[in-house]
Amino acid sequence: MTNQALVATAQALVADDKGILAMDESNPTCNKRFARLGIPQTSEAHRAYREMIVTTPSLGACISGAILYDETIRQTTSEGIPFVQAVIAAGIIPGVKVDAGAKDMAGHPGEKITEGLDGLRDRLKDYARLGLRFAKWRAVIVIGDGLPSRACIEANAQALARYAALCQEAGLLPIVEPEVLMDGEHSLAQCFAVTEQVLHTVFKQLYTQGVLPEAMLLKPNMVLPGLSCSRQDAAEAVAQATVRCFLRVVPAAVPGVMFLSGGQSAELASSRLNAMNVGFKSRVPWALSFSYGRALQQPAMETWAGQGTNVKVAQQALLQRARCNLAARRGEYRAAMEVTGS
Ligand code: 13P
Predict the structure, then answer these.
(1) Residue 106 Cα, ligand 1 centroid: separation in angstroms?
(2) Which of 138, 198, 276, 282 keeps 20 to 30 A from 40, CA to CA?
């Protein structure tokens, strides 16, 4: 695949005010969420849940791409259709999570390094053959006492850039996800400083390793106060801090900033994205979009609860979140949509 094709994929993923659905929870993460809702933690339950998602009528009107997990790619819907084909049939571009998870970093207590580079070139070739068009790699950065360390930021940035270069070589669009976690008591200003440092380092590594910025998407955290911070800033302040931070360090050539939700409530994730688009859409060079996991899926997962009889109403819950976030990209999200769904 040519670079032009990768650029076209990036453009398609940000087009028409749509965003990406992250449905790529690893088995341990998916099982943890299922366990909380009393859903069996089996491969068949993962399959049934993901079938509920990808067969949601009209999902493709709001969702441009879906990130799948390796297990899902090798499964079929109950009609025997491979998931990659079912996603394509829904008018959605299929992608895949390719990292092997964030592991404890040697010599750096409390910090993580994402693994998965070994053998990645061959795995990417297989994914491209299976019809996947883009990939995702997530790095995790913790804010805490003396954290993050430069070592953690540099090592994760280097791995992200090596992954992105391999993706572009294999003809898969890389989604580069450096996530500064929300956990902690830190302020909005502290999150700003760490996010700026992390993104600066990531883009320096991407440049050093020859990754084309036009042929990638960034999947970052919003600049937010920590979950346990006593001061929880308004959506407008979050929007302003996030855009100000990104204007300093994200190249204008990157087509889209696809935020993760990171544990925000579904409503907050919509209202903060909305505030960014209301305030800054016409003044920033990139699309301000979403690539949410929990903020799109959580209400649907709770409604589904492992019961086939709940599929239709769970699909409505998913579609509702997708519509709210499409509206947020347009700066047209209103709290009233949560009640009426209109
Ligand atoms: P959340 O939106 O739930 O943070 O998930 C996004 C994601 O893909 C994490 O890697």
Answers:
(1) 25
(2) 138
Q: Give the length of the chain.
A: 342
User: What is the percent of the chain with per-residue pLDDT over 70, rounded to a whole number?
Assistant: 99
Dump pLDDT digits (tens) for 120-159: 999 999 999 999 999 999 999 999 999 999 999 999 999 9
| CATH number for domain 3-334, candidates 3.30.360.10, 3.20.20.70, 3.40.50.300, 3.90.105.10 | 3.20.20.70
Q: What is the mean pLDDT of residues 68-94?
A: 98
**Residue 49 in contact with ligand 1 by CB distance below 6 A:** no
Q: Nearest CA to 244 among 199, 201, 202, 274?
A: 199
Q: Domain locations in the chain?
A: 3-334
219 labelled catalytic:
yes
CA of 127 to the centre of ligand 1 (A): 21
Question: Is residue 177 flagged as an active site residue?
Answer: yes
pLDDT at 342 over 80: no
SS3 for 103?
A: strand
Cis peptide before 148, with omega less than 30 degrees from 0? yes
What is the distance in A from the centroid of ligand 1 to the CA of 260? 5
Taking residues 10-33, what's their average pLDDT?
98
